[in-house]
Amino acid sequence: MSLVGKQFPNITVDAMDEMGDTLQINVLEEAKKNNKKVLLFWYPKDFTYVCPTEIHKFQESLKQFEDKNTMVIGASCDTPEVHFAWLNTPRDNGGIEGVTYPLLADTNRNLSNALGILDIEGESYDEEQDLVTLKGSNVTYRATYLIDEEGKIFHESVNDMPLGRNVNEYLRLVDAYTHVQEKGEVCPANWEEGKEGMIATRDGVATYLQN
Questions:
Q1: Using an 8 Å Cβ cutoff, are 16 and 80 in contact?
Q2: Of residues 51, 71, 161, 171, which has the active-site annotation?
Q3: Which residues does 193 contact at the CB level (< 8 Å), separation at least 6?
Q4: What separation in angstroms does the CA of 145 have from each of 158, 159, 189?
Q5: Is 51 labeled as catalytic in the residue annotation?
Q6: What is the pTM of this model?
Q7: What string of pLDDT tens digits covers the 211 residues of the chain?
Q8: C-alpha angle with apex 130: 129 to 131, nearest 5 degrees?
């Protein structure tokens, strides 16, 4: 079920920063206390293949997000120690050295389960052993959340494992939501920063379509 328009779950998760410090991060609280938007992106596993390309692209665009009053946070179900090992692995060896935003370590899967983004194909019950086993990798899909300053989710998207994200689209969505907040207008198809918005009325759309 979509979480758009709802408050982000109020769950605190372990995290790791580039200095090797284990943190406790509550995404909802971060948005509210800092009066900032948050981009939270999930990836399946550390030390894999598509994941470092995305992580570096978000790092390359970090200043642009910060200029738009937006924090960037990465997340997976790996442990803080594995995150730190990957943060200390050079780029030319498949690592993410140089990344400065925090990485959530949702090892107990409390947050990813609440968001419904785990790869679980089903479960089976062995009555003789009284044992439930899961089918699927039980790691997260490539889910992305944009959260506003009040903790409300205004965008969510989920990619399957092989499909990397387009970071520029999230910059555009942050711009669009900020335009709505500041101008009280809506953003039509293919809207980009600097283009005109639209008044959400019958006359407004008629006027827009004439341009």
A1: yes
A2: 51
A3: 172, 175, 179
A4: 9, 12, 20
A5: yes
A6: 0.94
A7: 789 999 999 999 999 999 999 999 999 999 999 999 999 999 999 999 999 999 999 999 999 999 999 999 999 999 999 999 999 999 999 999 999 999 999 999 999 999 999 998 888 888 888 888 878 889 999 999 999 999 999 999 999 999 999 999 999 999 999 999 999 999 999 999 989 899 999 999 999 998 8
A8: 85
